[in-house]
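Side project, low priority. Logging it here so it doesn't get lost.
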Amino acid sequence: MKRVLIISVSLLLAVVLVAAASGCDDSAKAKEYMKKGDELSKKSYSLASFTEEMDSTDITSLLTELGLDLAAASAGAWESSASEVTSEIDRMISDANNAQDEYEKILALNGVDDYKQYAELKIKALENYIPVLEGLQSLINQMGKALSEGKSLSDTAGAWYKDNKSVQTELLKTVTYWAEAELLKKQKKLEE
């Protein structure tokens, strides 16, 4: 009887120790996933400055920030510049999707509520951000078509902007969620 009791207590103690150790492992894993997700979405933060009072001029500035050479249109090198920027946007979309995957891994962990809250904010940011990038690809395609038809790029950008006001809203939501996540990270000292 004593032997059964000792074995039972030993097994219970082992279970408790494993549970305690896995809680520590979950924090370490959460931090690892957070850092990887943050690294993948780092390029996205550079677009945050375009949310204040955005207009069609800012949309073209946003494309310029991504590397689109608007002067290339008059020099006959539009296709090359547009192709480079479209490839960059494709990479950013891929990185954003991969970052979401990393943040979602955090949601599956136990005992990491602050990291989960951070991950949820980052996921919301990326869910709004990806349509912004897709919208910019659409604008580049429309500008290329307009150029081939001899139309003004600025007029095309202005018309696109009027028809796609949701891009500004989605970018603003993205920046808001990012800011909330960064504030949480700082307050909860998630990087330490």
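Brief comment: The longest helix spans residues 2-40.
Revisit when time allows.
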